[in-house]
Structure formats: C-alpha cells, structure tokens
Amino acid sequence: MFFSFKVMTSRLLLLLCCWTALAKHRDGTEKNAPSFLVDYENDRFLLDGEPFRYISGSIHYFRIHPDQWLDRLKRVRALGFNAIQYYVPWNWHEVERGTFDFTGGRDFARFSRLAESLGMYTLLRMGPYSCGEWENGGLPYWLIANDKDIVQRTNDTRFTSEVSRWFSVLSTQIIPLLRRNGGPVLMVQIENEYGSYYACDHNYNNFLRDEAWRLLGKDTQLYTTDNFPADGSGEGYLKCGAVDGVFATVDFGPTIPQNVDKYFAIQRKFLPNGRGPLVNSEFYPGWLVLWGQREQQLPSDEAMIATAKAMWDKGASINFYMIYGGTNFGFWNGAETNAPVITSYDYSAPISENGDFTPVYMKIRNWIKSIPGWKNEPTNPPKSNEKKAYPTVSMQLMMPIMQMEKARKYASCSASTNPLSFEDLRWQFGYVLYYTKLKTCGTNLTIEKVHDFGYVRLSGKPQGRFVKNFWDKNTTTINLKGCQNGDTLEIIVENQGRQTYETINDFKVFLLSRNTKG
Ligand SMILES: *[C@@H]1O[C@H](CO)[C@@H](O)[C@H](O)[C@H]1NC(C)=O
Ligand SMILES: *[C@@H]1O[C@H](CO)[C@@H](O)[C@H](O)[C@H]1NC(C)=O
Ligand SMILES: *[C@@H]1O[C@H](CO)[C@@H](O)[C@H](O)[C@H]1NC(C)=O
To answer: Is 235 a catalytic residue?
Structure first.
C-alpha cells in the first residue's frame, strides 16, 4: 500500500513538472533556462531571459586565507552587491610548468560557490595576463626562464602554445561554473587592459577569443576591459584592447559627470551599432601603495558616491575595484615602474584588510538601499571581527643568510664564471647570494645591472647596496673599504617582485659590465 502510494506521488510530481515545462514553451521564451548574454539592441544584459544589472566588487581569493573567504564575502553581500569579480592568475595555479593546483586557497570554484550561496554571481577574468599588482602580472616566471626572448602577450607561438595548454586545463575548472550549466559565472574576461600594452596585436587577442570559445563553448559571454588614463587617451586603448565579437567594457575612477558621459560614449563606439549595456569594470574607491611611497591622494567619499550614482542613473553596471583588497602573502606582490607594491593590498577599500567596515562602506550601503526595486537588498553587516593583542612571539634563527660558509649547509649552490640569473637557477622569488674570492682588489665595484637590490659585504663587512631604479634612484658603484686581494665578496640580490602593469621579461639578475675587474 505504502509503496504504491509513493509511486503515485512521484507520478504526480512528474506530471506537474511536465506541465510547468510546457507552460514555459507556450510562452515562447524559455524564461527560466539558465543563461547569460548581452542584449545589444536593448542596451542590457539578460540573465535567464530577464533584464539584469549588476553592482559588484573585486575581491581576490588569492589574497585571502581560505578560512576567511566566507567572512569576507558576507561583508560584500551585506552591501547589497549581487556579484563579485576576480582574476585567475596563471602563476598562482601553475607555479612550476606542468604542475597544476586548484585546491585550498587556489580552489576558486569553491570561492564562487560560497558567493553564490550568499546570492552573488561571478565575473571571472581568465587572463592569461591579469595585472592586478600581482607578481609578473599573473604570468608564470618560467615563461621567460624557458625562453629569454619570448614576446609575451603577442601571437608569438612560444607564448600562445603555452596559453593554449593552460587554457585547456583552466577551462575544465570554469565549465561547471558557467551560467549555462546553472552556475554563478555570468561572463568571462579575456586579457586585461590589453590596449595599454605596446604590442597592440589583434592576432593575439583574436586568438584568445577563439580559444576561450573553443574550450568554454561559443555561447559563453566573453568581455574585455580597457582603462581611461587621466590624460583622456582611452579611445586609443580600446582600439587595441577591444576584440571583434567580444563585449567591450571600460575602467575609470571617480570623476566629473561629463567624463562619465564621455567615457561611456567611447565604450559604445566599440559595441555593435553603438548599442549595448554600459559597464565600468573597475571603479576605484581606493588605490594601491608602493614601497617607499610617502603620500597618497584619494578621491573624497562624496565624489566617489556621486560618480557611482551618475553611472547608475545612466543604466550602467558597476564593479568596485577593490571592494576588499586583502594581502599579498609571501612574495606574490608585483612591482610598478617606480617601486614594488607593498605586502598589504588593503587598497583603502571599503572593507579594510582586517575585514572592518570603513565609513565609505556604510555610504555605499545606504546608496544601494535607496535604489528603488533593487532585488539584492543590503543585509545586516556582520559584526567586526574581534581584535586581540598578539602574545609574545619568540624568534628562532633559521639560517645565517649573510654568512656563506654557514648558509651552504641550508641551500644548494651552483658554480659559474658569470653570475646566473634567478631564472637560470629556477628560483622564482626572494634572494640569491652570489659570492667569490677576489684575486685582485680595486677601490670601486661597478655592476651594470642588479635587479632589484644588491647588498654587498667584503669578508663579512657591509659595504653598501646596489639599487636599480627605485623611485628613479640607481646605485651602480660601491666603494670597497680596505679591500685586499683574497677577500671574499658577497652580494645578496633581492627580487622585490616582477613588473605587473608593464610586461617586460623582468629578469632578476646581476650582470657584470665588461670592464668589471677582479
Ligand atoms: C602574428 O601576427 C603577425 C601580424 O601581426 C603575422 O604576420 C604573423 O604571421 C602572426 N604569427 C602567427 C604565428 O600567427
Ligand atoms: C670610486 O667612486 C667614487 C664615488 O663614485 C669616486 O669619487 C672615485 O673617483 C672612484 N675611484 C676610482 C679609483 O675610480
Ligand atoms: C635609473 O635607471 C633607470 C633604468 O635604467 C633609468 O630609467 C633612470 O633614468 C635612472 N635614473 C637616474 C636618476 O639616472
């Protein structure tokens, strides 16, 4: 009896399901099938067939301890945001060539699923280049270690063949997350601000588009983003960064209302028939900080909110870069032309590095609360995390880095007539100690190129520091005090992070000039 009743119930359910499916069909729209696309003619997005806009925030899983992912995402959700945006840095997932890691702090699928569980979609930036003030802009250091002359971010086959190999692995992680498959990923960005790169190689960004479509499926909504520098030269950047068939978006920070109009008008020039939804993919509430930087000027909260409102009133979707910045753990910070990026990536973001709310957080939340009909209403912000004093921390000596004879016990050494680069040594980060016994000794030691700093000791005594282009300062000559034939010369070379905005095959290196003696 019981058994047959169960069968009947499930038949009934089955019938009901068929009925709703039919209803959808008769309506002619298939409204609830998961999908996401740009409806160019009507200047809007369609999510599952319905008009859609987003207010999202950049938040980088690779800059947050995975135990804190949920906490930080809840703070983003409490603002009323309905999406997040992040890069997937290639070098974070393929640290050494052929070894892939998508677990723990690298499990971005889990990060997106957590966001989804709170009611936020994902805008995923697959690269291969990210920038993001991240080591080498997200490109693996082994690309230049394997081939010194490789021309990155162009259609150089030495580069594109590696990208194809990486994308074929990465795409298997992304596919289950795509909206079409019921997942939270709405759009996938290729490259990043490509128009700011000198190469302007359309063969290359067409190749990225075709690879992404081939691997993810042609119905995957792709996008690009290009920036507007303060001098207003944004249009030239879009000429190199926008890709046929790919939705072009723009980046700009708080500005006057006339510029909002101007920048979005330029975005539309790069959309089919000049139509399509407006998107600012990087709207800057704060900014990054470099080592040695003395001061920083940020826009006022009022200017920031005013620009956000102006964009919203024009019908735009907006991504705040960063809504939560986080931390460059380990040696993962990148470098700018002037100096490397500091360990903190707080970014003066509305949610501070330790998860606290700043005054501007509440202003953004209040603004979103006031938007009529906004579906993802702000929730109550979680309480600030408890602060505690650190107990006494006792330090232990691990290894005497400035005493070569002792350090050899801990590290491997290579002998070479000419100094080997970090890349030659397959040493991605940190420090390399170079040492030699001087047969003949001069007064001055001149080295053509030490990237980035080189700390000099002569038979154990500190002599000074080589500097390469730190806030435009260079030290290429060190005076050796009381140098005698047979002294030991030690130079510790420090890698402070590879260039992020500019892609320059940034070797970490110490090169002897031809006239260096001894
Ligand atoms: C790369 O692009 C250039 C034009 O910019 C073209 O001449 C060349 O054949 C392309 N190379 C490859 C490998 O596609
Ligand atoms: C060594 O360098 C100092 C400072 O750069 C310079 O004044 C001096 O003339 C140099 N000495 C020799 C012998 O080249
Ligand atoms: C320091 O070196 C960099 C890179 O070679 C160069 O661009 C810069 O002009 C130099 N600065 C000075 C003050 O000479």
So the answer is: no
- Of 3.40.50.150, 3.40.50.300, 3.20.20.80, 1.10.357.10, which CATH number belongs to 30-369? 3.20.20.80
Ligand showing the shortest atom-to-Cα distance for residue 155: 1
Residue with tokens 């380990």: 330
**CB-hemisphere CA count at 13 Å for 470?**
22
> 479 - beta bridge partners?
444
Give 387-444 pLDDT, tens digit per residue.
999 899 999 987 766 666 666 677 778 889 889 999 999 999 999 989 899 998 888 9
Note the pTM of the prediction, 2 decimals: 0.91
Tell me the C-alpha distance between 57 and 30, whole Å. Answer: 30
So where are the chain's domains? 30-369, 403-516
> To the nearest whole percent, how much of the chain has pLDDT over 90?
82
For ligand 3, atom 1, name the residue with the nearest CA.
469
Are 30-369 and 403-516 equal in CATH topology?
A: no
Ligand 1 atom 3, closest CA: 203
Q: Per the residue annotation, which of 282, 353, 423, 490 is the catalytic one?
A: 282
CATH of domain 403-516: 2.60.120.260
User: Is 50 one of the annotated active-site residues of the chain?
Assistant: no
Q: 1-25: per-residue pLDDT in tens?
A: 333 333 333 333 333 333 333 334 3
- In angstroms, the CA 292 to CA 338 distance is 10
Q: From atom 5 of ligand 2, which residue's Cα is the shortest distance away? A: 477
Q: Which ligand sits closest to the CA of 200? A: 1
